[in-house]
What we know:
The structure holds 2 protein chains of 2 kinds. Chain A has helices at residues 2-12, 15-19, 65-75, 108-115, 121-140, 191-194, 201-217, 232-238, 287-302, 308-312; strands spanning 21-22, 25-30, 41-47, 53-58, 88-89, 98-101, 106-107, 153-156, 159-162, 271-272.
Amino acid sequence: MERSRTEQESTQKSAQDSARRFGPHRLITRLDPPHASPPCRRYVARTEDGERTVLLSTPLPGTDPARFAAEADAARHLIGPWVAPVTSVAGPGEPPWYASPYVPALPLPVALAVHGGPLPEATVRAVGAALAEALAAAHAQGLTHAGVSPASVLLTADGPRLTCFGAVRAASADGEPRTGLPGIDPGSLAPEQASGGRPRPPGDVFALGAVLAYAATGHTVPERDEIPPGLRPLIASCLARDPADRPTAAALTFAPAPPPTASSSPTGHATTLNPAGGLLAPGWLPGRVVAALARQSSELLAAELPAVAATRA
Amino acid sequence: MLSPLTHDDPATVATYRLLARLGSGGMGTVYLARTPGGRTVALKTVHARLATDPAFRSRFRLETDAARIIGARHGAAVVDADPLAETPWLATEYVLGPPLDDAVALGGPLPEPTVRAVGAALAGALAQLHASDVVHRDLKPSNVLVTAYGPKIIDFGIARAAGDDHLTRTGAAAGTPAFMSPEQASGQEHPPAGDVFALAGVLVFAATGHGPFGTGSPADLLYRVRYAEPDLTGVPEALLPLLTACLAKDPAARPTTGFLVDHLHDGHGEFADHLPPLLLADIARRATDVWLHAPHRLPAPAESAVAATAPNTPLSRRRALTLGGGSLLGLAGAGAGGWAWLNSRDPGRSTGGTPAPTGPTAVPATTATDGAPAPLWQHTVLDREERTTQLLAGDDVVGFAETVSFRAVDTKDGSELWNESAVMHPHQITTDGTNYYLSDGNFDGPGVLKIRTLAPRTGKEAARTIQLKGIDGTTTQLLTATGGLLFTASRLGKRDLDAENVGWHLLTVDLRTGKEAWRQPYEWDGVRPWLAQVVGDQLILGKNSGDLETFLLQARDTRTGRQLWKRRLPLVDSDSFIPGHLTTDDRHVYTGGDRLRAVRLSDGAVAWEYGTGTAPLRYGIPVVAGSLVYTNVSGQGLVAVETTFGIERWKEEVGSRPLAPDTLSKPVIGTKYAYAPVRGGLSAVDLSTRTSAWVFPTDASRYVVDQERSRIIGAGESSAVAIPFE
């Protein structure tokens, strides 16, 4: 009875309208291109009053909503610059979603597409350093991401952001093989996790190695010589089959960085933009990726919600 | 860049809600604004006095039409406009890119490929304009915005050029004529070829950092534009023939825009491929910052509040001094030491009420060495424990939290105004610049936090004592006060030496209602104090971690106490930090240590670091002035770094005299000198020569500036002193 009443109410609105609302937000656009398979659905949305623009995540179809909500709630406690901060979540009885303040962001695969191929080594190092820091902080708090993959990583102007925390754990119970599930990138799944093992930190480190391999070559399972020599030992150690052979996220070091191109000065001082060794100095993102971020920002600055009166009808 | 709204900016213009100021000038103000549907725009408004002139209104309309003609590709897309409104306005897209002059200021002259790409795109834009029978008339670096997809031309010269010809003839044109065409400079019609001349000037500027006719008075520039050969020093050789041709005095001899499009650039790659890293980083930052900006509005100047508590008439000032003198005489026996006046420039000081110096004057006979100024006043024996906190209130009272008392001193002559022995420890007192706030509690019996409000000139209670029950007020640390809120670190319960480490909260008091505004628990790790600073709606807190190995920074919402972010930084020796040592501007908090760091206020990320961290250098407590952050570097001297990307702007030239920079004291930045604390004194680094002009010998290690009286007040282990601030 409860269900049919809800259905009745929703048919009073236009079907399109209800599909484009989550809590106080109305969807403006999808963040991911068609045919992409991130571990969760990501949209750019805006509150009805036009005030706040957010990055909004919802579970993929077939995911346990309660589990998704529980994982989202756990992710709220993560603090740090490399994790998209969850600032609001679905209320009780709502379909699950959570939201972070919007900043211009490109999913890693989109960044490779606009750049026209694998990213420069300096970019890969910067992404690696920041993601390792994010995972180390999460692991220290007892949280495992479990779904690190190229699509789960967003590039923003000042560094990468790890998104879709916990979404993959919600996709299946521990003990069931996880291959073939929606949103799971087989190339980024640690062997012990693919076979249904409980996601643990070493699985995240494996996935980080796969993400960096992807950024540097364009695929998660590259031939060894495709990877730039400077990154090979690091990526290979993350991709060790035995979890015990992998370094912890906290132990990963991405220095030495190539010398910054623009900001070194003859006095021996250099300006760097990140604790992990100057990896986010100006120029860490290639020009076309910056251009794509600026275009996304411009388009969303210009985006206007349709007049409120029209949608309330 | 985004600046806060001021208290007299309107909340809305038409249906647009204002978010921030982007700039203001002779014509009006440009705001970042938002429609009810959430579209964000740049909103240009016209000054009311100009809006009453019908001729100006029609020119504003022409300007709007021209902006529509140039379109979104080569200009800022026009969203809407109302030239007929009481305050005429024009809403355009908010363009994500710096003006060309800012771009050059940021990273120096642009590389040749960038200049070529910008030039070809501008030539294409002019071609399109000219095809629509529009000439720009005012092409100059500040009217060209460099985005990741190409330059955009803004601000046509219509509103100024039309009807202002007489001004250009007399050389009194508003703005610089450095990029005018010779035709324009001689008061003739500015043909399309005039835009080509101006374009070449813009490209010379982009490639070298200077215009082809230099700088100077408008009359000189107008003359040089008409008759002098352009100065192309520094222009890449391959560009010389083309730019020289464009700068021909004869309009007919200049190349066409189409020719320039073909010959400036071969069209390979995308525009962004040709931009240098710093420019890309600036564009990316603009694309991001506009989303992170939390609108806030600057409060009205607090003059009225100050006047209420600090009477400013000569008569009452003298009376206050009398009171101060009386209390000095009454309490001077507590070992506070003597006071002396040197070289006081105030003729009124000899009139009744100023206390006679007691004890030894103890001013060294040779205070002024090698050109250092004589102190305006000086007194001895202040604080042997070096726990002094300096608090400036009402612009003419400086407070010193001494070992077991608090002393308020007139910045004019150093005379003591009052003394409060209830202040046992510096953490019991703070100020919002208007009043002093003093905390106390019960040593026996139930816990209570008492907050007294003291008028700065009299030390009398300026408001009812606030009492909050259930808090051990004897251990409370007052963090900072602003906007009617007093922020504290307080322990719940009553005084209990066995429970000193439990129950700690950040607790905020609403000074207007006398009630608690919010409290949030935090884990006590044995270390105080919290350094605190309020920026907009954020309370920024910093302190050492309990293991003394990291410096903890965090941001909280001033209205709820909710933690917005936190960050650990490597930092050594910050245990000697005192309140006032947290350095912020509206975007970053800056810290020293093994490197100079800027931590972003929006999310706590490290925006940049300066220094390799490998050399055994220590970076001192920084200070921000304008767009530069200054800090002492151990063994080297003062360094100035720009705030956005941490790029070094200049370093102190080390002179013949070896100086030992003090990295635990905050420098003071004036307009003539940057004052850098060094061992044994305060070194005045001349901002034009970047060398130390003189060193004022003092043991002071903490300084505040009384802007109104143009003086620096310093305090050290055994003296307090005032010297001129230039």
